[in-house]
Design goal:
Layout: E1 4-8, H1 16-24, E2 28-32, H2 34-39, H3 45-52, E3 63-65, H4 69-72, H5 80-87, H6 94-105, H7 109-131, H8 133-146, H9 149-158, H10 163-181, H11 185-188, H12 195-198, H13 202-219, H14 228-246, E4 249-251, H15 255-273, H16 280-286
Parallel strand pairs: 1-2, 1-4, 2-3
Helix pairs in contact: 6-7, 7-14, 8-14, 10-13, 10-16, 13-14, 13-15, 14-15, 15-16
């Protein structure tokens, strides 16, 4: 039986559901992203970390740590299972890590200092995200203003992407992908990005999840209702959702994060099922499946 690798949101780390799911089969693997790792160090680092690892420390052979997103973003397109394997950090010794946490709780000063250093870095990282949200908030409102209201109404009622909404999505995805991947040459020679070729990369799937997030925000207003703190949390959720479209599932309590994942999976399935290897609009309109209750892997 092949492994089933599910991305685990930090809000599920201490849950009975995770404990039960891991106990059901040794083939159930908990995928821990770099953002999830940093969230374990937020606030009171030692206390938060100790609570966060209580479940996963009992299933060391079923824990899959990922490399930093900055590194995974540079991985070239490849089949999805090979992409998963390329993202996995195979250098970290989890047994030594769990031992270090136990030593810290016994008063070991070196272990305590190491956790404090990681906690300071994590808190600074998430603080920086919050500080950058003014620009993100403005960008979201600007994008929502140009989305066709009738097309969005059709999407909300029938879960169908109208042509005008598809065109807005395609433009957004292409521009975001160019930004995240640095592929400015697409703009210079005025060629559309080849979706089928690029779909199995982190930057492209992140762009799709950002697009899904904007659509969800537009369904609930013009974006002005989003506080900077909420936006910062949502940016973290987009990271989780992106990895979830690459791996085999997603375990989260956050309904918005789940909605981002499901909507992005719908878009990705539409692209993957299309035989079109051309502009985004052709790929999305040629074969878009109904929104699944449980997104299927591309």
């Amino acid at each position: 039986m092949p492994d089933f690798r599910a991305v685990i949101d930090k809000n599920r780390f201490e849950s009975e559901e995770l404990d039960r799911w891991l106990s059901l089969s040794p083939n159930h693997k908990a995928v821990i992203t770099d953002y999830a790792q940093m969230e374990c160090y937020k606030g009171d680092g030692q206390r938060n970390l100790t609570e966060s690892i209580k479940v996963i420390s009992r299933y060391q052979g079923q824990i899959v740590l990922l490399k930093p997103t900055s590194e995974n973003s540079r991985v070239r397109p490849r089949p999805i299972k090979k992409l998963q394997d390329k993202f996995i950090d195979r250098t970290t010794d989890l047994s030594s890590f769990f031992t270090a946490v136990r030593l810290a709780n016994l008063g070991n000063e070196i272990a305590i200092r190491q956790i404090e250093e990681h906690s300071d870095k994590a808190n600074a990282f998430f603080c920086q995200i919050t500080n950058e949200m003014n620009l993100v908030s403005t960008g979201i409102r600007d994008v929502i203003r140009v989305i066709d209201v009738n097309a969005l109404r059709i999407f909300r009622k029938e879960r169908v992407f109208a042509p005008k909404l598809v065109r807005a999505m395609c433009k957004m995805i292409n521009e975001l992908f160019r930004y995240f991947s640095g592929k400015s040459h697409y703009e210079n020679n005025k060629r559309s990005i080849q979706l089928v070729r690029e779909i199995n990369t982190f930057p492209f799937r992140y762009a799709i999840c950002c697009c899904a997030y904007v659509i969800i925000c537009a369904e609930n207003g013009d974006g002005s209702q989003l506080s900077l703190k909420v936006l910062a949390n949502d940016i973290v959720d987009i990271n989780y959702a992106t990895y979830a479209t690459i791996f085999d599932g997603f375990m989260t309590r956050d309904e918005k994060a789940k909605a981002i994942w499901e909507t992005a999976a719908w878009i990705i399935d539409g692209i993957a099922q299309s035989r079109t290897n051309g502009p985004a609009e052709e790929a999305l309109t040629s074969s878009v499946p109904p929104l699944p209750d449980t997104p299927q892997k591309s």
